[in-house]
């Protein structure tokens, strides 16, 4: 008897597009058309068809420690970013982080024969595989090996620049190689919070048009800036603090926070997705992300975090606080451990209350990127001095309260 061979690549691709439309990741006919056409399986040749057209990223390269250094991003992320980038026929596009070459192929189709796509990859091996896949499938992309932090001057200027690796800074070259009025799309880390930010160039300033939460393999090379990792309770302890922007932290004192009894303060505020509350709390000194051992939370050793990975939190001296939630998700609270647990939990809870009173989930966040050293706008909620840029984050809510 013949066994069924399962759905074809074309059927799986159509199903993927249908799913992404349903989830709202694909919103335009143009993105639906190109994602329905480019064979994603050809760019991840070692993977089964079901994985190639599944919902997750496909890791293709790892370093010696087993850490992922290249992947085909999850289709939902690819689609969302293409929608943010708003690519038109005839555009000149620069992609930073070729990876498998899949997104470069989508871009090549979007710009058509009157446009031009350049893609830069840092890693020789990764670039080699992408080059093969692109030539096998026949998509016209100028592929170069180099550090994308410098852009690619030879084919500039660009109407669109898309960075597909996590960046800590907005490099000068990206702004300089973008036409005035053009869009730069970058997964930007701000106080440890990564957002895919679409930034429109207006002279020397870049202003956000959309922000979408995301996670990305970090950019390598000269511009790589890593977060500080502080274990609480020893290596592989129950909590891992991720602190960005070189903020000072007493790692030794914070590492002992779980030796003290905990405190919890409830806020009366319902569970919310973190997009806007995160930025509100990011102004607190010691703001960080707290990665939490699932086992420890399930065993009741520590309070449950807001999300499966953990929660945003604050470290102050030897005390660590993070957001928690009731079992029925009806109310956010703050759990804290350390010598000043009650006090820090109350401080963070007060901030959540203030956020809620000021518009809560109805607030909006916008980002402006200026050349480094620019005097901050007075309405900035948060100002982050990077190497090449000054990032100003504004939060607005008052006008929504009328
Ligand atoms: C998430 S993958 C990109 C996915 C890709 N766009 C695709 O469609 O498969 C990130 C890629 O960025 C590359 N990368 C990291 N740092 C880079 C840099 N400084 N310049 C260029 N590429 C870089 C990595 O080697 C990796 O291949």
UniProtKB/TrEMBL annotation:
A single Gene Ontology CC annotation of this entry is: cytoplasm
- Classification via PANTHER family: PROTEIN-L-ISOASPARTATE O-METHYLTRANSFERASE, PROTEIN-L-ISOASPARTATE(D-ASPARTATE) O-METHYLTRANSFERASE
* Protein name as annotated: Protein-L-isoaspartate O-methyltransferase
InterPro entries from the UniProt entry: Methyltran_FxLD (IPR027573), PCMT (IPR000682), SAM-dependent_MTases_sf (IPR029063)
Q: Which GO terms describe its biological process?
A: methylation
Which top class of enzyme applies to this chain? Answer: transferase
| Higher taxonomy | Bacteria, Bacillati, Actinomycetota, Actinomycetes, Streptosporangiales
User: Recorded E.C. number(s)?
Assistant: 2.1.1.77
Q: Which organism is it from?
A: Sinosporangium album
What are the protein's UniProt keywords? Cytoplasm, Methyltransferase, S-adenosyl-L-methionine, Transferase
One GO MF annotation is: protein-L-isoaspartate (D-aspartate) O-methyltransferase activity
Q: Which domain of life is it from?
A: Bacteria
Chief localization: cytoplasm
**Does the record carry Methyltransferase as a key word?**
yes
Q: Which family does it belong to?
A: Belongs to the methyltransferase superfamily. L-isoaspartyl/D-aspartyl protein methyltransferase family.
- Which NCBIfam families does this UniProt record tie to the protein? methyltran_FxLD
Instruction: Tell me where in or outside the cell this protein is found.
Output: Cytoplasm
């Amino acid at each position: 008897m013949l066994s069924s061979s399962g759905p074809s690549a074309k059927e799986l691709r159509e199903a993927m597009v249908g799913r992404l439309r349903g989830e709202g990741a694909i919103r335009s006919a143009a993105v639906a058309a190109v994602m329905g056409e480019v064979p994603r399986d050809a760019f991840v040749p070692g993977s089964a068809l079901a994985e190639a057209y599944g919902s997750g990223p496909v890791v293709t390269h790892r370093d010696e420690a087993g850490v992922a250094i290249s992947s085909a991003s999850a289709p939902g992320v690819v689609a969302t970013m293409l929608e943010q980038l708003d690519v038109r026929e005839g555009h000149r596009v620069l992609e930073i982080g070729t990876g498998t070459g899949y997104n470069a192929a989508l871009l090549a189709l979007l710009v058509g024969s009157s446009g031009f796509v350049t893609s830069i990859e840092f890693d020789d091996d990764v670039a080699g595989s992408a080059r093969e896949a692109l030539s096998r499938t026949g998509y016209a992309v100028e592929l170069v090996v180099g550090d994308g932090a410098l852009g690619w001057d030879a084919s500039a200027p660009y109407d669109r620049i898309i960075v597909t690796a996590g960046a800590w800074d907005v490099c000068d070259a990206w702004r300089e190689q973008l036409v005035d009025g053009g869009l730069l799309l970058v997964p930007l880390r701000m106080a440890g919070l990564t957002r895919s930010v679409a930034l429109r160039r207006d002279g020397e300033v870049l202003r956000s048009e959309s922000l979408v939460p995301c996670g990305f393999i970090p950019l390598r090379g000269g511009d790589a800036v890593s977060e500080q990792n502080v274990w609480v309770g020893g290596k592989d302890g129950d909590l891992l603090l991720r602190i960005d922007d070189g903020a000072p932290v007493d790692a030794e004192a914070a590492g002992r926070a779980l030796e003290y009894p905990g405190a919890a303060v409830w806020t009366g505020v319902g569970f919310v997705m973190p997009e806007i509350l995160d930025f509100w709390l990011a102004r607190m000194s010691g703001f960080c992300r707290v990665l939490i051992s699932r086992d420890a939370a399930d065993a009741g050793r520590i309070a449950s975090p807001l999300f499966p990975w953990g929660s945003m939190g604050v470290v102050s001296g030897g005390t660590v606080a993070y957001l928690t939630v009731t079992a029925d998700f009806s109310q956010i609270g703050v759990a804290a451990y350390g010598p000043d647990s009650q006090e820090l939990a109350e401080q963070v809870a007060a901030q959540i209350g203030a956020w809620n009173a000021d518009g809560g989930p109805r607030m909006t966040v916008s980002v402006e990127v200026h050349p480094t050293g620019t005097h901050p706008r007075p309405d900035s909620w948060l100002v982050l001095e990077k190497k090449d840029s000054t990032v100003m984050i504004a939060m607005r809510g008052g006008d929504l309260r009328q």
